[in-house]
Structure formats: structure tokens, C-alpha cells
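Field guide to reading this record: the first block holds the primary sequence, the second block holds the structure written as C-alpha cells, and the final block holds curator observations. Each block starts with its own label. This record concerns Probable membrane transporter protein, catalogued under organism Photobacterium iliopiscarium.

BLOCK 1 — SEQUENCE
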Amino acid sequence: MHESVMWLFSMCLILGSVVGLLAGLLGIGGGLLVVPALVWLLPQVGIEPSMLMHIALATSLASIVMTSMASARNHFRLGNVDLSVVKVLAPGIIIGGLSGSVVAELVPAQYLPKVFAVIVLLLALQMMLSLRVTHARPLPSALASVVGGGVIGLLSSLAGIGGGSLTVPYLSYFGVEMRRAIGSASLVGFLIAISGMIGFIFAGVGSANLPAYSVGYVYLPALVGIAATSMITSRYGAALVTRLPTATLKKLFAVLLLIISIKMFLS
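BLOCK 2 — STRUCTURE
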């Protein structure tokens, strides 16, 4: 394996350890950090600008498949997953997740980082404001839920994230108790990640100039590096929840996201 690829793999081991720790500690999807990090790392191994964001998004979603599966399993064991809610959202989530790769192919390469930056900016603002729902509302009709799930899936796939930052406020808005909203969002995140990943794999198959060790747009050295450490450190992050001021840390993380999104939008 080429020396630069080994360097990227070792950097992704470090990235995965940080991402896993933050995911466990703050309950956020690692994609918010993975995508900007890969946008910086991937050019170092010669990946062309025209497919840089596609590979970053696809690889981020593939890494989330690994981590969200473990998270969803844990929440399911604890009884935090409301399957009736997930079933209503699932059709839209899967369609939206798959559609993200189609939209990413249609958006000119130079504008895709700006799309990502705007989505992250909105998520950072939501995280900073910590919006709370004061009036519970009944869940919308099946058709409205498909549309809502579709929007969540599409935006999440376009940002390379599991969508917890979108799904939890959505469910909370409709009166789902916070613990069950978070647990259900973990399973929804798995559905988003796997449908988005499949979409990007099929979109990338046959593309010219794909780097070696790729499956569609998923870049395996980065995926293996991130997944190997993030699945370990997420447990430690969850264990630190009761010891550290997570509300303050979440706001600091939101400020970091604001800086990242503005930088990506202007670059």
C-alpha cells in the first residue's frame, strides 16, 4: 500500500478516536466532523477536487453505519426505541437517504461544500439554541411523516451525517419523550446512513478517476481507520456523560461547527 495511503489511514485512526469520543459524550453524529476532516485529508493522497466531497460524504455515511448500528442496538435493549415512530418515518428516510447521492451528483462539484456548510450552519445554530418544545403535538399523518422523513434523509445524506441533530428535534416537536426520541433517532440514523451509503456506492460505480481501494465513492482506507477506533472510544464517551458538563461542551462544539461551516462556505 502506498506510503501516503498509510499516512491517511493512521490519521483516520486518530480522527475516529476523537469522533467516537464526541459521539458518545455529546450524542451527535460523527459526520459533522468526519466530512470536513476528510475534505482536508483526502487531497493529500491525490483525490481530485471533482470527486472530493462525494468521497467524503460517502465514506462518512459508511462509518456511521458501523457506529449507529451499535448505538441503536444499545438503545433497543434499554427500551428507548419507539418502533411505531420509526416505522412511520422509515419509508421517507430511506427514499431521502438514497436521493442524497442523486442530488449530490446533480450539484456542481464546486457548490457541494457550500451546500454542506449551510446544512451544518443550521445544525450548529439549533445545537447552540437547544430548542425545547413546550407544547406536544400529535404525530402527523402517514403522508406528512413520509415527507418529513424524506427531508431529514435527504439533508442528512447530503451532509454525510446520521441525522440525529434533525430527527431528535423533529420527534420532540411532536411530543415524543426525549429519551425515546434519542433512542429512535439512533435507529433512524442507521437507516439514513445505510441508504445514503448504498446510493453513493451505486452513483460512484464506473466513475472515472476513482482512487484505488474504493467501492463506489466509499474510500476503504479512511472508512476502516475511522470505524476501527470510533467504535471503541464511543463507549468511553458515553461513560463520561455524567462526569462532564455536556450542555456546555455541546455549545462549544456548536461554535466549532459554526467556524467550520463558515470556513467551508467561504473557501
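BLOCK 3 — OBSERVATIONS
The chain has ten helices and two strands.
Residues 49-77 form the longest helix (29 residues).
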